[in-house]
Protein 1
Amino acid sequence: MNGAVLVLNQNYEPLNVCNLRRAILLVFDGKAEVLEANGKVIKSATRAFPAPSVIRMVYLIHRPRPRVKLTRREVFIRDAYTCQYCGKQSHDLTIDHVVPRSRGGAHSWENLVSACKPCNHRKGGKLLTETRMTLRREPHEPRAGRYYTIERRIEGAVTNEWAKFLPGFTPVTMGASSAERGASRAAR
């Protein structure tokens, strides 16, 4: 009972991904309806039910626009897995504080960048002016895309049942090139 279920708002906007057990509880409590089944059957002592793959909430859920969580992975995605000092693309990156924490730098989107190990070691606990290094791009907080809550909760491809409810969705993967990620974000 651990299958992933796509949860849509009353207006068919993607809200979240939940597990099968939560989806069944929402349906039986009258809070959601099943739009698509995944072909499997869930059996109770007296009845059998088709396992949901996509459910839609009966009432409109008002929620604020999500913010991108500040994590290593999200910093790497924002910077397209590229060192912000030398421009080298790699999956073997570190996180660097532009203004070091020892010098009062904050742990925030505006002060964190991806850096390769040689550049991070070269910069160390110094300011950029002291090392004569420059940033390729100013760090900023990225905006959460249309499918942010969905793409961060699924692994791999979207099922056929989900595809028609997620137009233009392409999951962000660690192996995607910067051009693919840019096209994915532009489509949102």
Note: The chain has seven helices and six strands.
Protein 2
Amino acid sequence: MSVSLPIAVDAMGGDFAPEPEVFGAIEAVDAGIGPVVLFGAEARVESVLGARGISRSAPGLEVVNADSVVTMDDHPAEVLRNKRDSSLALAFDSARAGRSGGVVSAGNSGAMMAFAVRTLGRLPGVDRPAIACPYPTKKGVAVLCDAGANTECRPLQLAQFGVMGAAYARLILGAKRPRVAVLSNGSEGVKGTALTREASEMLQGARTDAFDFAGYVEGRDVVEGEIDVVVTDGFTGNVTLKVIEGVGMAVTEILKGEVKKRTFAKAGALLMKPALLSMKARFDYAQYGGAPLVGVDGVAIVCHGGSPARAIRNAIRVARGFVNQKVGDEIVRVLRETGLGR
């Protein structure tokens, strides 16, 4: 894919669409990330652009009308049949036709997965695409794969998640030689299930310089920062991420409550404010933009439904990185090298 190709943004997918999508696209263009094409209700998109004094023909921006919208309540299978004229469908059509380099959407993640697989197809050797979700750790950022696309998995699929997550961690997040581990209920090799044990054996037997396999990782250790890629099925992965998010929010609220109770604590909080703001920023999903759908033959970034403009801008940045770094080609190469392709 050419670097000059625009990134396609589903302007109607998010909870507050189209404002965050349009403003995020403007920010991406202004930041020099590259051109963007917005797919959505033409009149609404143009109205948001007009509020910023921007024309639909402004340099780096393009607007393509879509007659329908995929809602959060739509079932993926029904969307594939009945909403081929939706903003999400047209965005993927543009990517398949080579008119855009990738797709960004804050809409229905199940529908996005369905359109991505149906429209773009899978990379050679990939059994099932997965959601690779970045999350904060004590030492930086790690990746959990799968974060919800596949609730029931086979061992080969988990092993492939490790390969795909490692490519993302290395080429986009900057981990020089990612450490990959399988999520389990203990660090000993005899722990886990038949699924995790067999997947671990596959990854242990992989001969590659693309990543190091570190065996099992327990739930309490996923935020330590010693592991760059945590491999699990989509059900467990989704629950794990929400627990991490919930604990982070709870700790913040508890801390606020304790500070309000004590006069001296209030004074201390003022001194700690820069550190607290820094911690808050690390837990802000908007800085990561979104979670890439790895394993499809193209680029697709799944954003949080409530994504603000900054998250959309950063998702466009991540999509551009996937295009420029040719992450898909690297996944195919490592699958072949390790013999983990299907």
Note: The longest helix spans residues 234-261.
